[in-house]
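To the structural biology subgroup,

Please find below the input and predicted structure for Histidine kinase, which we are adding to the shared reference set this quarter. The sequence is reproduced verbatim from the submission form. If anyone notices a discrepancy with their own records, reply to this email rather than editing the shared folder directly, so we keep one authoritative version.
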Amino acid sequence: MGLYRKITSSLRAKLLTMFVILTCLPLIVVGLISYNKSYNTVFNNNKAATMMLATQLATDMDNVFTDTKKLLELEKNPNVLHFLFSQTDSNLDAREILQTMSSYRQTYQYDSVLNITMINLYGRGISERKGVFQLNKNALRNPHFEYLIQNPEAVLNIPPDDSSSLDPLDGFLYKNHNIISIVSTVKQRVTHEVIGFIIIDVDDSIVKQFCDNVIIGKSGFFYVADNKGNAIFLPSKTAHNTKWIQNKTISSIIENKNKEYVDSSEGKPEFIVTSPSMSTGWNIVGVVPLQEIVEEANSIRQLIIISVMLSIIFAITLHFFVSNRLTRPVRILKNKMQLAASGFLEAKVVLAGTDEISDLGNSFNIMLGKIRMLLDQSINEQQEIKKSELRALQAQINPHFLYNTLDSILWLAQSEKKEQVVQMVMALSKLFRISLSKGKDSITFEKEIEHLQSYLTIQQMRYRDILDYEIAIDSSLYSLLILKMTLQPIVENALYHGLKNKRGKGLIRITARIEDEDNFLIVIEDNGKGISEDRLGQLRKDLLEPHTPKETGNEVSGGFGLHNVHRRICLYYGESYGVQVDSIESEGTIVSIRIPCDWG
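Predicted structure (tokenized):
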């Protein structure tokens, strides 16, 4: 709001804003469009390149495992079938099997294959490292063999983390290698009954190389996850990567047809891409900070920002050269107008030239002359208007008070209380007669007391259970002149806002005295509920306002109240006179009215 006020209150600021908007807005719009297109182009190209790289890695891994799985063709070798199906030792079959294994190695150059093992359901097996051996435990207790018995067509690719303690069938443990075990069934040709298993131990470095040798951007990386999204092969430098992977899950993206997405759940956004390996059932997962993917687009954004800032600086510089000549006459005229607004009506404008601003200055000088002439006339008229308004206020009568009084008279008449009817009618008649007073503004203090007694007589008959009053005024003061209806609004406040909210009967006491040679003091005191400190402070503040606030002490008869009584006294006698309120909550209120002594 402060910046908006500065712009709208200054011609120079408006010109500056116009220059900046007209210069920079088109450039900003073009820059945003360019940035958006360049961002999308760069992001889509890099995304496609990353996706292609992940797909290539998955394809390469498929090729490696496809070649390795050619060793599973050994299950069709007659010697293997005879060895696994037979229950007796056959050294010839064993030699033939080992020679066949060696032949495969020489043909396909299986450097990563560490060992090939075959075993039948009874624990009789053969491996490259140990030759023929016999297990001393049930081979079917191996959980991987149990699964293959149920799913004989499946081929298991078992990473190091998923290996079982029962997997080393020939008892050999690898000290310097972690292995991936490729496990399949061997089935009888005719009945397709499972007669054994073939296990190929592969050095896991053939998979790790896919994670270690390829990076994305500056800090992105690839890792291998199983079909559930769990990481099974990580890059060698995994200090940061392991922590990231532990906090993430890609199971949802693996199951989804959309194989890439941007993850913003933690810290800076990360671009994640996956590509499945059909041969293994695993997934190549690539992770790279999104910032690196769109780095080129960010460079374009910085160039656009620099261009816009230079344009703004140029616009501001041009503004100071152009606007100074345009706004200088306006500033002179503004200063003269501020002087005139502060009350100095002799502030004339002298401007050189014949343009519109000079014409405006001449018109301003003519206006000041007419204002000075009209001001004196307006002061006299306003004083008469205020007095007329006060007289109109005095002539008003609160209809609620009249209705309630007439209802009380009707009730008394129906109850055949004739004396009380007569007393209340006489009091009401005297109240109205003194209120009118033939249009006079001032009446004697004696008449004002009679008016107040008539009012209290009516109210006491209506509120006999809560109202007592006492008027203790020396008769020597009766000849003093006082503004008509000064006391009744104050007493009405005391009754309605003091005694009516008090338990039991209350007392209103009216006293008066000569304060000094020139001033006359009237005190109206009640023992009602009083006024809180906050409300009293607000009430005193309202009495100083030139116009009646929305809530004073509250508005009472005929539109009068504490505020109206106070303003009438101030207008007639001056600001040194008026109403003063003192109160203690739950104890009572004292209203003091100070007016000058006027003996008529």
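Summary notes: The CA atoms of residues 157 and 182 lie 5 Å apart. The first strand starts at residue 113 and ends at 120.

Regards,
Lab coordination
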